[in-house]
Input
Amino acid sequence: MFLHLGGDKIIPKKDIIAIIDYKKGNSNINKSFIKVVNEEGFMENISEKDKEKSYIITDEKVIISSISCNTLKKRSKELLITE
Output
């Protein structure tokens, strides 16, 4: 299954390690991690400026999305049923 992160970005759910709230994820350890990820070029921002709501951590990069953690959680639980 896949998860839509906003814009045109869709990733396999199996690649997601963690989803962290953008504003609440400001502990010292998170700040250090995000700083290193950004400096190393593993950050992808798909959000509009000042509308960031979550960090999606994958095995390859960290994606900043304008979709909230709660919405991403709900989307990840939805089942796609086709006939």
Observations:
- The chain has one domain: 2-77.
- The helical segments are 28-40, 69-77.
- The beta strands are 2-6, 9-12, 16-21, 43-45, 54-58, 62-65.
